[in-house]
Structure formats: C-alpha cells, structure tokens
Amino acid sequence: MSLSFQYEGINLEYEIIGNGEKAMFAFHGFSNSSEMFRVLEPSLGKKYTIYSFNLPYHGKSTLDDETTIHGIDTLQLQKYFKNFLWHIHHSYFSLLGYSIGGKVALKLIELFPDEMKDVFLFAPDGIKISFWYRFVTRTVVGKWVYKRLMLHPSRYMRIVNAFESIRLVPSHTANFVRNSLDTAAKREMVYQTWMCLRHLDPDTGKVCKIINERNLNFHLYFGKYDKVIPQFIGERFVRGLRNKKSLHILDAGHQLIKEKTNIELEKILSV
Fold first, then answer.
1. Model pTM score
2. Residue 140 sits in which domain range?
3. Residue 121 in contact with residue 256, Cβ under 8 Å?
4. Based on the domain organization, do 223 and 243 belong to the same domain?
C-alpha cells in the first residue's frame, strides 16, 4: 500500500515492507522505486519494518516550488526524518540504501549519529563525488552544458565517448551516461534528481568517525563486475574503518538488489 509523509516542502511516497521490531529507512537507486526492496523481505523483513521511500521525481514523491529551485538542504532533510520518526513512534532507525539512495543514507548517518542502528549499503553513491557531477550541478557552465545535452544528446554522447577513449572521463562515468541518459525522460529525471540532492554530499570522514566511535553495525556491498560504482570505491572507504570486514564483494554487477542477495544478508543477520 502506498503512503506518503509531508513536512516543510518535502512530500515522499513510501511503502511498508516486513513486520520486524526495528524501523528501517530504505532508499532506492536512480529510475527504480520503493518496490525494489520487496525482494529482500525474506531476510530483512523478519527483523525490520522497512519504510521504503520513493526519492523525489520518482513515483508520487514531490517537492514544493522553493525546494525544487534551491534543492533539499541538510537541515530540511534532518527535520523531515526527525518528524517522520515521531510519526511512526520510533526513537531509532536503521538504513538500507542502493546506488544514489546510498548517498541519502550516508548523509543520514552524519545527521543522526545518536539514532542510528544498523546500516546496509549496496553500491552507494556519495562516497566519491565525481568532478562531472559537481560540474553539472554546481556551475553555471555545467548547467548550460546539461541543457544542451537535453536538446542534442547524440552530439554530446560522441564527446563522452571521445573523452572516455583518452581517459578524460572514467569508464564507469561514461557507462552511466550511456545507460541513464539515452531518453529525454531519463535525462530530465537524472538532472532533477541530481539538482534536488546536490547539497547532500556526505562528509565521508565524519561518517567513518561515527561508524568507528559508535561501533555501528555497518555493511557495505559492491559488485565485482560493477562498472557504474566499482568496488575500489568501497575498498578505499573501509580504509577509514576499524572493522575491515564491513566490506562485502558480491559476484554481480551494479544490480545488487535481487532475490539471491537474501542469502548474503542472512549470513550477517544470523551472527
């Protein structure tokens, strides 16, 4: 059943998965939806009640005009989930994030260190912020370039391919461009999603410090063959963690949220 919660300019659609004692907030990847985590109910649904949110510009999740223009800021995000916790009558919560949803999850660790319990992140965005993302979302020239891309995609795709061939653009970035910007609807969704989340880049040093000091039950999953968010990003991140076993490499590509992932989660949950 689809529900929604609105507070100060943010209205997120969500659904409830599982019936466990602990509350868990879940955030999907780009062009996915809250439904994607239903497949993990056999493992996580026993221990957690999962509140799976649709990100802005996905499903029926919306932002008011001011937030659309300026993007979601850190305080606004903090207030939203603080009030959502009150709404569901919980004092603590856990996190589940995939791809760009992992970026939101990392920011929530930073904002709610005292309320945080367990964290499961799959190929999370936000650990490494690319030059191109900053360029497109933070600069006048970058925004102009993206608008031109919206109008003349084939021309800019050729440029991306050329930049990849001379290693000016990493292969995983080029793959993302090709896979996620091939239609006008996808290009619009990517841009709007990037823009609304542009103020929420996590401070990874602070996140690592919180994980270490509070001994968080933290698990990071990457696909061995992932070309979008490759495993070396996770390997670099765990260098800042005391528990090096937080990193798990799966025999998969970027799509990690699938039925057989329950087997991996059961190993952790049974400990």
1. 0.88
2. 131-196
3. no
4. yes
